[in-house]
Design a protein that fits this description.
The structure is a homodimer of 302-residue chains. Helix content of chain A is 44%, strand content 14%. With 302 residues, chain A is an alpha/beta fold. The longest helix of chain A is centred in the middle third of the chain and has 17 residues. The termini of chain A are far apart. At the A-B interface, helix 8, helix 9, helix 10 and helix 12 of A face helix 8, helix 9, helix 10 and helix 12 of B. Chains A, B: Keywords: Lyase, Metal-binding.
């Protein structure tokens, strides 16, 4: 194996994790949690989403959260933005990085954002342009890269096509998502090899879900191909397997455990990560599904 | 990656899985379950353990189980045997393969079998000799290969030393266990590289636990080094994270999902595997912890 010396872990729990949680987490608790995350050594936190609260009531307090957290200089505070209206709100609260999103699957894109893939480019073009003009960095997410709940297999060409368009619109980093957690390491190698033939590895991040237990194996093969950026959600938040609509986010604490044990530098303190996980677990009132948290509870009870 | 074309999955659920379950599973249910496992395409099933029932009451029905299951010709039915007395029982019921076990950690070995490592060789020598004389194949397990709950790190030399001794006593296959689920892929590569310098890869099996989510990543690096035999427990049985003494066995269904998706032949039918998992889950009366089973429940409920 040819492993990198260091990796950037991009914490998406406050957005991708919380957005699937039905129970509203109090705004103050979100703020406290993000402040705790800022003390763990993480250098990137996606704190919220400026979508219409009608679609994600959990993140209706995006402005308040973004305004109220204590920002540390060396941390990038990012937010998801679906359109120009969302961007205006994000810029008003001076978010550091804007993340736009779409799907490699035509059907999933329609179901998720009610637009065709080509219509989505038209919506995202001014968002990306204006964000860049405002001096913000812009990240793009592509979902269903490794499989779609409606279409099944997704061709690598479809992924490359959307990637091309997003980069040509100006995004600086691309996060490839295994939205339904079906990717296997061989497939990751195949897709990533073609992606890295076309784009520099520094611009590619991987966003795995652990729905079928393969996330860290997929991380491993990605590391071996030179990828150094991974998205994850603390405690596997948003991925509780017993909840409806389980998404199975890769847990930051599990990802960090493996990276740390392999001597890969992340700058993150695992103990502080666990403290932050315990905090949000208590607010949620239900166990977080990460292996680290399950093992912690098990060891405490035995 | 350089992946093998086919892999042998060694099902250890009826022994390694059940032995951690406090609630006694009725003998008939064990028999029915093993018969279901025999129909899944598995070629190897460790069905019980001939240990003193005082230590593992769950497996007190070893003789009855071994006598009553329907054996298929192309399946190896194995059992754990700690000593000559256990071997006699195993031979009386004509078990196909005998598995002996010890630890790479002096302290763990003492706590687990109440003997020093060198005393254990003396106990195992006649067991292995007599099993071989009776025409049985013999497998050896080494536990705590990647870390010990009492001693912490275990040196590769300690692992090689126990491996040497067991092979010189006559075992034909060696299963290296990550008993407490702490192994990381880099460590697996380091240990396995040295092990494979000394022993042929056909004689080595890996036995990972998923306690910290790394089992399939550890499988992946092992596959890449040419290992084609893996132990696992259906549904992650014996590894329920909410139970005391959670062991976190790698789930056969999760292992098989990844292998199958990568096009690696196992001969196993995933659907039949799931049916067998549902059967034992109902007998246990609590959810099995594998990702496959969690995802199945989640999809059914949503």
């Amino acid at each position: 194996m040819n492993l990198p010396n260091s990796v950037t872990v991009k914490e998406v729990g406050p957005r991708d994790g919380l957005q699937n949680e039905k129970q509203f987490i109090q705004t103050e608790d979100k703020i406290d949690w993000i402040n705790m995350l800022s003390e763990t050594g993480l250098s990137y936190i996606e704190i919220t989403s400026f979508v219409n609260p009608k679609w994600i009531p959990q993140l209706a307090d995006a402005v308040q959260v973004a305004k109220s957290i204590k920002r540390k200089k060396d941390i990038t505070y990012a937010a998801l933005v679906p359109n120009e209206r969302g961007l205006q709100a994000a810029l008003e609260v001076n978010i550091d990085e804007v993340a736009v999103f779409m799907s490699a699957s035509e059907t999933h894109n329609r179901k998720n954002i009610n637009k065709s893939i080509s219509e989505t480019y038209i919506v995202l073009k001014p968002v990306i342009e204006q964000a860049l003009s405002a001096g913000k960095s812009v990240r793009g997410y592509i979902s269903t890269v490794f499989g779609c709940p409606y279409e099944g297999e997704i061709s690598i060409d479809a992924v490359l096509s959307v990637s091309d368009q997003l980069f040509s619109l100006g995004i600086q980093e691309l996060s490839l998502g295994d939205t339904i957690g079906v990717a296997n390491p061989k497939q990751v190698e195949e897709v990533l090899t073609k992606v890295l033939d076309r784009f520099p590895r520094e611009k590619i991040a991987m966003h795995f879900h652990n729905t079928r237990g393969t996330a860290l194996a997929n991380v491993l093969v990605s590391l071996n191909l030179g990828i150094t950026k991974f998205d994850s959600s603390l405690g596997g938040l948003g991925g509780c397997p017993y909840a409806k609509g389980a998404s199975g986010n890769l847990a930051t604490d599990d990802l960090h455990y493996m990276l740390d044990q392999m001597g890969i530098h992340t700058g993150i303190d695992q103990e502080k990560l666990i403290q932050a996980a315990i905090f949000i677990e208590e607010k949620l009132g239900k166990p977080l599904p990460s292996h680290t948290m399950q093992t912690k509870r098990s060891l405490c009870n035995s």
